[in-house]
Amino acid sequence: MSVEELKVSIKNLNVFYGEKQALFGINLNIYANEVTSLIGPSGCGKSTLIKCINRMNDLVDICRYNGQIMIDGEDINDSSTDPVSLRTRIGMVFQKPNPFPKSLYDNVAYGPRLHGMTNSKEDLDELVITSLQKAGLFNEVKDRLFEPGTGLSGGQQQRLCIARALAVNPEIILMDEPCSALDPIATAKIEELIEELKEKYTIVIVTHSMQQAARVSNRTAYMHMGELIESGLTKTIFSNPEHIKTQDYITGRIG
Amino acid sequence: MNNILSRNNAEKRFKVYGVLAVSTAIILLGILLFKIFSTGISAFNQSYIGVKIEINNSINSSEIDPRTELRQQLRNMFPELTTRAEKRTLYSLFSSGATYEFEDLLKTNEGKTINDYYYFLASDDVDMYVKGTVKREGDSAGRLMSDQLKILDQFEEQNLVELHINKYLLAGADSREPEMAGIKGAIYGTFYAILIAFITSFPLGVLTAIYLEKLAKKNRISDIIETNINNLAAVPSIVFGLLGLAIFLNFFNLPRSAPLVGGLTLGLMTLPTIVIAARSAIKSVPPSIEEAAIGLGSSKVQTIFNFTLPLAMPGILTGTIIGIAQAIGETAPLLMIGMVAFVVDIPGGPMDPATALPVQIYLWADSPERAFVERTSAAIMVLLIFLFLLNITAVYLRKKLEKKW
User: In this complex, do A98 and B307 lie within 8 Å of one another by their Cβ atoms?
Assistant: First the structure.
């Protein structure tokens, strides 16, 4: 990328679950068409942070937050922003593959149908097929599009979930430890996919595997106990971290 | 070593206790079912007595009084019975229903002549004697006196006493005469009441469960509502009857004894059961599915109707059918709203006075006639078959919906 385009900018974000503060004054920039990975020990608030980006935390009754999250210069917590339409711009892939208990086709078609994105059956068919192709799944499943999505292997299910997210044509894809339930081969496939997807999408990935962060991401942010310790280009973070805590984590001394 | 031995023994003992408990339950259930079926099965047959009917002119049914004509035909069979008392004894072997059957016979043979033996409904006392429920002791048998038995013996010598299928039991409504009493009216009453109970309690219960589980903020008020719903499930059913009496009859002035009111009352009674079952079914839907839908930009309500509800439906239906089955067997609340009345008409709709199966059983069990004993058991059999069918439906629906999802 020659010109870095700011996609998401998080400023001074504090998040509370009830009385307990989960995130402390987070400042982070996420750039378009890049992969940004969030690393850090369990419970450090990585998942909480990405769930703020598509306002999934709104669903938690006791969750409150302050600070600012801007996407393309718009404050997503502004009263004029509807969380439902926000989430159509931001796809999400979860830790555990969670296909709907429907056919493969219906899994991918759910989003487009919901938002009335296609006018005809043919358009929808095409959208489903291209989404599956983008997720690198089409060739494996083209003969069983109308079988239940839950019959696939774990890695295929996760790619199905990615295809499902791609079908609504999001700008940003949030991935919450997408490979933690997968074996190394399935993980490799997902990583290849992430590599391809960043051409078109902005990707934020939470991961526990530092190798994965090093392999797939352009930028890395290290979090610890609800604080963002440091963020920057992945190369820099891994070779020359500024902060001692980051260094300890990366070298495996804590975590 | 010793420790392991004693632990293994304890396990064996525990298993034996379990087997004992289960077999006791099965034996008791078996005795109950055997008793009910062995008593009730005879109610599906009914004693009929053959009468020679001879009408040589072509029949014009509107001109013949069936009661007088049937008696005339009987007298023709027994010319030796001359006194008033003897003739009365002869007539008393037949049910008053015989007259109606004779009337039907005349109507079907309009314009023809008849000369044959036809069978007519015997009285309940004859029926009990023929079925062997009451035995001959000295000169009499149950309520049959010696003079009645003498005439009945003559019929039996000619092989004119037969057991036919009891068409009154399943096709008739209640009657003071046991041989003509049926449960069709009660079945209809139960059907309408349960239909209304389902229509009111199912949507209300499911919507309440969805609201409490998915939409309401958790706070003190929702806690109080939750506790109260759980408490409602434990309220004695007769209290719901009082509630129905106070609200539907006294306040809204709905008709007394109507399945509409019975259904509404039973619906109120079933509501907490459905709410509790639906809430636990909704709770057990994996949140990952809902998160995925929300993440794709579906709204809360869309997520609920597209995923949560269909996935919870098997559990909701099971709970609902258990609640409805409970309501079918319920007597007490119906007593309070007047569905205990003696109703001889089959209700044409939920606003007509009716009774319900369990209430019919209660009424018959309370009747002094010997012949109502077997009818009580027969009605219980029908009720049990209904509940059995309902449970089968529940299992079937659950299996079917689970497979699809």
Answer: no
* Residue A2 C-beta-side C-alpha neighbours within 13 Å: 0
Residue of A nearest to B302 (CA): A114
- Binding-face residues of A in 29-68 toward B, CB within 8 A: 54, 56, 59, 61
CA distance B243 to B164: 45
Q: What is the pTM of this model?
A: 0.83
Residues A35 and A56: their CA atoms lie apart, in Å, by 21
Give residue-wise pLDDT tens across range B101-154.
999 999 998 888 888 999 999 999 999 999 988 888 888 888 888 888 889 999
Q: Does A101 touch chain B (CB under 8 A)?
A: yes
Q: How far is CA B247 from CA B75, B240, B275, B336, in A?
A: 58, 10, 22, 12
Locus of tokens 């292997």 = A153
Q: For this complex, say whether ipTM is above 0.90.
A: no
Q: Does A85 contact chain B (CB < 8 Å)?
A: yes
Residue with tokens 């994105």: A117
Is residue B50 a contact partner of residue B38, using CB atoms and an 8 Å limit?
no
What pLDDT is stored for residue A2 in this prediction?
46
Q: How far apart are CA B213 and CA B276, in angstroms?
A: 10
CA neighbor of A128 nearest in space, from A115, A116, A118: A118
B247 Cα to chain A: minimum distance (Å): 38
For B401, which residue in chain A has the nearest alpha carbon?
A101
Nearest to A56 by CA among B151, B306, B292: B292
Instruction: List Cα–Cα distances, A94 to A99, A138, B166, B289, in angstroms.
Output: 10, 21, 66, 10
Is A88 an interface residue toward B (CB < 8 Å)?
A: yes
